[in-house]
Each structure stands twice: as C-alpha cells, then as structure tokens.
From TrEMBL:
InterPro entries: GH116_N (IPR024462), Non-lysos_glucosylceramidase (IPR052566). This is Glycosyl-hydrolase family 116 N-terminal domain-containing protein. It comes from Adineta ricciae. Residues 78-339 form the Glycosyl-hydrolase family 116 N-terminal domain. PANTHER family: BILE ACID BETA-GLUCOSIDASE-RELATED (PTHR12654), NON-LYSOSOMAL GLUCOSYLCERAMIDASE (PTHR12654:SF0). GO terms for molecular function: beta-glucosidase activity.
Length: 339
C-alpha cells in the first residue's frame, strides 16, 4: 500500500482498536438459569413481577426491565451517537446504526439496514467503484440490489468516546477513507453536551496519479429501529441552513413516534468545491425504488429528485438520501462532512 497520511489524523492512540473481521472468543448469553435455592426465594417476587409484566403485555407495552424475554448480547457495538442525557443511537464497529434509545427507558436492539453510508468512485467520467460501507449483507427488500458486503479485511475501527475513527481501504482504487464520528461531550458545558446531534467528517485520500471524483451518500430511514413503537404522520422535506460561516443542505424527516414528536435531520456541509444532491424519499421495501436509487447514484455519482411523494400513513419504511460529491486531485486529501 502507498504511504498514507490518514493515520496521522487520529487524535489519540488510546481507545478500542478492532478490525472489521474481528472474531470474539467467548459467546455471552443472558443469565437465565438460577439455582433451585434461588428459585424458591424469588417465587413471591416473580409472581408480583409476572402480574405487572402481563398487564403491560395486554396494553401492548414492554416492561422497562424484561426478565422473561432477555436480549441476547450482540458483540457489535461501538461508540454511540448523541450527547449527555438526550437519548442515543448506537453504532456498531462495522458501521451499523443500532441500539436505539429514543423512547426514554426503552431500548431497541435491531440494526436499521437503510441507515448507512455508500461511496461512489468515478474516473474519466466513468464509475469504477460503488459500494455500501458496511461488511454486512443487506436483506431488506429495497436494498438487495445495492452492492454491499464491504471486504472485512479492508476496514479498521478505533473508538474513544465521544469520538470514533473508521478507516476504509477501497480495494483496487488507491483511495482511502477515514470517517471521524463526533458527538457533543464538552467539559463544563452541560447545555451543548445535551444536544442530540453528531457529525461525520469524511477524509478522502487519493493515492493515485490521476484525479478521482468521490461521492459519499448518507441514507436515513424514518421511524425507529423496529415496528414496536407506533409511528405515523411521516413527512420528508428538503431543508437548507446557512449563516455567515456555514451552509448546509439535506432532508428533514418528521413523524410521531408513540405520540412523541420526532424529527431527524441529515445534512451535508456545502463547500465551494463540492456538490450536494438529495433524494427526498424512497420506499425501502420496494425493489423498484431501491434499484432506482442505486442506478441513479452509480450512473453519475449524484442523486436526482423524483416526483414520488409517499402519503402520511402508519408505518411506512421510507428513507431519505443526501449525497456529497467532490473531486480529489492526485496524492491530495479532501473532506466531506455530514451531520
């Protein structure tokens, strides 16, 4: 591999280092087999708990501490998104968005496949590489046509909360990517540390002898991690933010989750030498929609808005996309930033 400057951008050598192909030795399971003596002692407590658990189940609610259906440990987690006390969205060390805690006290441990980053590399007006940046297979119907399963041996992860750094060596492209994830956790500033935000700064290094056009697409799905909490009144709309020092464009996804107002906003930072394109919404359960997004991106490294607008209905698996496109000169580095 050619000499790279990306490793110097990691601010610390401390933290947790792991490759995408990490195999953990033990397989941990929830404790579910108490001794006989313990069973006898806890029968009165368990009967009281069972009454409360059954009452919540009939009301289609989940107990905050569910001892009857314990969650098996998934050895996938990395540094989460979100600040201090504002709820979090977990991230796996392979790039998954998982372990949602949007409803206070309740957790969803599912991975949302549509929430992901994708890279498209173009040289001489031709797409040479287009890849979802996670080694997992995408099983959702609308994402099956996407080129997934990034090579595990080409990814490395490092985390030291509130930051993490993920490095991707794109096979055969002489392109390296570094994603720096940062959540607000600021000493002596409780107010700003409580903001439910996160930034993803992508450093793009071109080790080739010719320029490359790099597009990074950020996709985000409405709703939550599962269908457990009823979600409705979903709307997607384009947004632009600007002040004296900053300009950004993206998509706002508004909805009601369990009667709680919830808004996601995914943005790309506008620079003088980049282009931001969006797709307001598409159905992640539709083969046609998913294929159209993929062909649209891989055709020219940009997204094209469509006229399709999905109605406000209950749980509709709609998602939005924001794409930043920039040209990186030979042996140079550039950044693309999402929030």
């Amino acid at each position: 591999m050619s000499p790279s400057q990306l490793d110097r951008l990691v601010a610390t050598k401390h933290g947790w280092h792991v490759n995408f192909d990490k195999q953990f030795d033990p397989t941990w399971r929830p404790f579910a087999r108490p001794r006989v003596r313990q069973l006898v002692e806890y029968i009165p407590l368990f009967m009281r708990y069972l009454r409360v658990w059954y009452k919540l189940k009939r009301a289609k609610r989940r107990a905050h501490m569910d001892f009857i259906n314990p969650v098996p440990l998934q050895q996938i987690y990395g540094a989460p998104l979100g600040g201090l006390g504002c709820g979090t969205i977990g991230r796996g060390f392979k790039g998954e968005f998982c372990r949602y805690q949007l409803v206070p006290g309740l957790y969803e441990f599912q991975t949302v496949e549509a929430n992901t980053f994708t890279v498209c590399v173009r040289r001489r007006h031709t797409t040479t590489y287009c890849q979802v940046l996670t080694p997992n297979r995408l099983r959702k119907r609308g994402l099956r046509t996407w080129n997934c399963a990034f090579p595990k041996e080409n990814g490395h992860y490092q985390a030291l909360y509130p930051q993490s750094w993920t490095t991707y060596d794109l096979p055969g492209q002489k392109i390296r990517l570094l994603c720096k994830q940062l959540s607000p956790f600021i000493p002596h500033d409780y107010q700003d540390s409580s903001l439910p935000v996160a930034s993803f700064v992508w450093y793009i290094e071109n080790l080739d002898d010719e320029p490359a056009e790099i597009s990074l697409m950020f996709t985000w799905q409405a709703g939550s991690a599962s269908d457990e909490f009823f979600c409705d009144a979903i709307t997607h709309e384009s947004v632009k933010v600007s002040d004296e020092d900053l300009s950004a464009a993206g998509i706002s996804i508004r909805q009601k989750l369990r009667e709680m107002k919830l808004e996601y906003c995914i943005l790309g930072k506008q620079e003088s030498d980049n282009t931001i394109t969006t797709r307001t919404n598409f159905n992640t359960d539709s083969d046609t929609d998913g294929r159209d997004i993929w062909l649209d991106l891989s055709d020219d490294g940009r997204l094209t808005e469509k006229d399709t607008k999905y109605p406000k209905i209950g749980v509709l698996n709609t998602a939005s996309c924001v794409c930043i496109t920039t040209t990186v000169e030979p042996h140079q580095m550039k950044t693309s930033e999402f929030a």
